[in-house]
Amino acid sequence: MKQFEALTRKDSQPVRYLIVDDSVFARKSLAKMIESFGGHLAGEAGDGCTAITEYARTKPDIVLMDITMPQMEGIEAVERIVQEHPEARVVMVSSVGYQDNILAALQKGARHFVQKPVKPDALYEIIRYVLNDDSVTAPVGAGESSR
Amino acid sequence: MKMDLIQPFIGSLDTVLAEMMKAPATIADLAMEEDGYRRKGVAAVVTFKGQIEGRIVLDMDPQAAAKVASCLAGAEVDAAEPIVSEAVCELANMVIGNAVTQLNDRGFQFKVFPPAVLTEEQCAKAGQDWEATILCFETASGNVYLNVAMHYHARRSRERGPVAVA
User: Fold this and answer.
1) What are the residue ranges of helices labelled H in chain A?
2) pTM above 0.90, yes or no
3) What are phi and psi of A10, to 5 degrees?
4) Which among A24, A32, A96 has CB closest to B112?
5) pLDDT tens column, A102-127
6) For testing the chain B interface, which of A73, A96, A115 should be mutated: the one with the most B CBs within 10 Å?
7) ipTM of this predicted structure
8) Which residues sit opposite B144 in a β-bridge?
9) Closest CA to B96 of B139, B144, B61, B148
10) What is the rounded distance in angstroms from the CA atom of residue B110 to the CA atom of residue B106?
11) Which residues on neighbouring strands pair with residue B149, listed in sequence order?
């Protein structure tokens, strides 16, 4: 696989990733890509519920999150992660890329979306963008009930 | 079944296979099937519900499935390895996800469920009450079958919307 210029955190440490996908192949493929980006795999999860606990345990810099998964889907998992950790940087990675899904994910706090099959160059650029995006945005609608 | 519903699946399979197998696939045959589905190789099923309801079976000759598994794993995978089924599920996920994205962009709304390995027992059930269109794609590593069974459950949202009056 093509090697990319290493993406690092602001403290020059390797970027730590949490990969969430019910397919072992998808996780393996994404893990190889992040390795080629100079990243470090902090954890893996096969469903949304496990993703929430793994996020709290590993506190990754980037989450790569599938949408269609058993038990709890990716969009709900993003909502719950971002509610508890507003600094979370989640990139949705899914084959289902229609507007409603993308919009729902972004409204719940996801930072970006990439469609499967994932092209390493595209993912690299998206991660670089998300890492440099310091605007920690609350999910759309968050806190509206208290207004 | 209308071809405009099937076309996105053909285009999507063609694109994803070309990406995965690094070689083009050609449509070799198209047939209708009303009886229970007979699995031909390693198969995965994806169901969806909403304004269009149905299920798609992606069925691959073992060598073709092994080729995809090897591509996804980044290492040679033997056709007999159980992990090949998982690779077919992931490929089905990509093909169907890309196709339903196109259908959604045309106004159809539905929910897609995670892919599952299609067992012999599920094969008969998969064919019940559904008229299916089976497309056979030829690849250098063997045939790939796409069994599409779906129907309109409701009109598209844009068709239900108010009629503009000039």
Assistant:
1) 24-36, 48-58, 74-84, 99-107, 120-132
2) no
3) -65, -25
4) A96
5) 899 999 999 999 999 899 999 999 99
6) A96
7) 0.71
8) B60, B137
9) B148
10) 12
11) B55
